[in-house]
Write a structure and sequence with these properties.
By secondary structure, this protein is of the alpha/beta class. The protein contains 18 helices and 30 strands. The strands form nine sheets. The chain has a seven-stranded mixed barrel. A hairpin with a 2-residue loop joins β2 (36-40) and β3. α17 crosses α18 (633-644). 44% of the residues are buried. The protein binds 2-acetamido-2-deoxy-beta-D-glucopyranose (8 copies). One 2-acetamido-2-deoxy-beta-D-glucopyranose binds next to β17. One 2-acetamido-2-deoxy-beta-D-glucopyranose binds at residues 212-220, 337-339, 349-350.
Amino acid sequence: MCTSFWLLQTWSKLQSATAGAKYGVGFWKPGSGIIHQIILENYSYPGVMLIGTDSHTPNGGGLGGICIGVGGADAVDVMAGIPWELKCPKVIGVKLTGKLSGWSSPKDVILKVAGILTVKGGTGAIIEYHGPGVDSISCTGMATICNMGAEIGATTSIFPYNARMKKYLGKTGRADIAALADEFQQHLVPDSGCQYDQVIEINLSELKPHINGPFTPDLAHPVSDIGAVAEKEGWPVDIRVGLIGSCTNSSYEDMGRSAAVAKQALAHGLKCKSKFTITPGSEQIRATIERDGYAQILRDVGGLVLANACGPCIGQWDRKDIKKGEKNTIVTSYNRNFTGRNDANPETHAFVTSPEIVTALSIAGTLKFNPETDYLTGADGKKFKLEAPDADELPKLEFDPGQDTYQYPPKDGSGQHVDVSPTSQRLQLLEPFDKWDGKDLEDMLILIKVKGKCTTDHISAAGPWLKFRGHLDNISNNLLIGAINIENGKANSVRNALTQEFGPVPDTARYYKKMGVKWAVIGDENYGEGSSREHAALEPRHLGGRVIITKSFARIHETNLKKQGLLPLTFADPADYNKIHPVDKLSIVGLADFAPGKPLKCIIKHPNGSQETIMLNHTFNESQIEWFQAGSALNRMKELQQKSS
Ligand SMILES: *[C@@H]1O[C@H](CO)[C@@H](O)[C@H](O)[C@H]1NC(C)=O
Ligand SMILES: *[C@@H]1O[C@H](CO)[C@@H](O)[C@H](O)[C@H]1NC(C)=O
Ligand SMILES: *[C@@H]1O[C@H](CO)[C@@H](O)[C@H](O)[C@H]1NC(C)=O
Ligand SMILES: *[C@@H]1O[C@H](CO)[C@@H](O)[C@H](O)[C@H]1NC(C)=O
Ligand SMILES: *[C@@H]1O[C@H](CO)[C@@H](O)[C@H](O)[C@H]1NC(C)=O
Ligand SMILES: *[C@@H]1O[C@H](CO)[C@@H](O)[C@H](O)[C@H]1NC(C)=O
Ligand SMILES: *[C@@H]1O[C@H](CO)[C@@H](O)[C@H](O)[C@H]1NC(C)=O
Ligand SMILES: *[C@@H]1O[C@H](CO)[C@@H](O)[C@H](O)[C@H]1NC(C)=O
């Protein structure tokens, strides 16, 4: 669980102070009073920002923090003092009016936002919630909304600091931080009259509970309609299992609302018709809901309280109630519902909704039940309606921290080893890249000359590859498999210049590496646009690439390539793109005099023996040239550290 709290000047303030800036840079300033400094071009602005490698990092927006999820290599850079760069985000203001009540939940807020902006509508934007409705949402509810900003592609989301955050901080042993935040309250809320790139307004009083699915998180139906839709689509309406908990939606309030629903059923002698599982999100939640009786109520209604873990949310589920391949419906309050995610059964229709709706549906056992209007029949034959649940936001007593299972790291970590199984498919220690040997790069082969668009997704595809993020050699098997080879118009098919056979790009790169031959990539305009993905720079370096020559680069990818010791270069005359053919050999000469602002010379050797010389521009500054010479930015840092110690 990664909710953290950091003071910050609100993003809207930052924006108005820096109107027109194109890039933001966050600095880690160890030892200074300022934890981070956000630099936008010429502006230096004291502020605080948190970057984390967990996709749940934006939860911190529920405590008024600018908290952004990044890749591991980016986080390493920041810890090591290298600035983290991002394209300056747009700011979308979401004005909340009315009050959240009844069966509606924070999730319904984000669904509404998603409905207005569409799934990709938040891309490249920070979403700032404000307005009088904010105070009707619990602190953990705000965290849920921020967490789910990922569903619409937002960089992160943030709420203004308010009394509910203060209360939550107090209850979780951080009253001192609340006191500090109070002191700076005027900086922790949007300026009056601040300008947003886009403003949308949502009346919380008018929100209806929704359910999403099956098979994608952005197909939303009002709970009142889902039964009819399911029948029409031929989705099973009988619910086999209801699942709540895991990292998100397992706050004390969530569990309390579920227990409040369960209690009403128990009072009428009812138990869940469906199977029902509860995965406590943390040891603290487990211990606190046991102490306060919620866990027992959930068991009494037929639930099974599982271990504190990700659990079925990420597929840790030894499901026994159906056979693989059997068509069935489950309802969860998890945050993703990709096909097969929970139980590896592609025929499982997973619907996502709030914990209290999952509980109500598990009691009724069918998607056709609308808790807002429908009646249940009690054990005594009498009909009754469930009341919208009401539960404490925070426990009356302090949270029970439960068992302390934290293992403290040693005071001196210098002698520690990190053991990784040599047969692991998913983890591998990163080996330092070779230092520059002081020579020119002679007679490089061209791995691929890319035609047209080449985003970071073409360079390092996501999807199934993401599980290899911790294993550079394995993930490198996706290198440039999406890029189109200009020679044959195909993806992932390039000529091996040593054997003349066509084969996949990664295999060809591996062959060159094995033969000790360096290689280059030729690209078109805006090479490496898209989300910053460090693997798009690590992989070519790992497989023996040295130079990427394009008409132009997306700036962040260009910096990422420099960090890994590659040379991102651009044609001084873009027309020279046509002079290079995939069968040519390239030499970059004059590297001994590599200097900022000074173009490099490239000799093209055609197979017929003729040669041409072209000039290549670059944007390296002094310290970046040192990265190249050391083999990578990390190597350079190590050198500097050894020098100073
Ligand atoms: C930043 O500062 C430089 C040098 O002082 C100046 O040339 C440039 O115009 C400034 N840029 C902006 C966006 O103010
Ligand atoms: C929000 O909706 C409620 C219920 O429909 C209505 O009474 C209220 O006036 C609305 N508020 C705003 C600001 O539109
Ligand atoms: C997840 O939900 C979406 C709609 O919200 C649906 O289209 C998709 O099929 C669901 N996925 C699964 C595995 O049920
Ligand atoms: C929480 O539950 C909602 C359904 O209410 C779901 O859409 C969401 O993704 C879950 N996760 C988070 C982080 O809130
Ligand atoms: C991943 O790495 C392991 C160990 O190096 C190797 O045996 C395996 O074939 C690789 N898997 C993939 C999918 O590349
Ligand atoms: C490359 O740099 C030279 C001078 O250093 C400049 O004249 C030329 O315009 C640059 N090329 C491009 C495409 O920017
Ligand atoms: C050699 O090949 C290059 C590239 O295809 C071509 O431009 C050049 O004219 C050829 N030279 C000779 C002498 O054939
Ligand atoms: C070089 O650029 C980096 C950004 O990548 C910046 O942090 C650094 O201060 C620059 N160094 C010099 C010497 O200009």
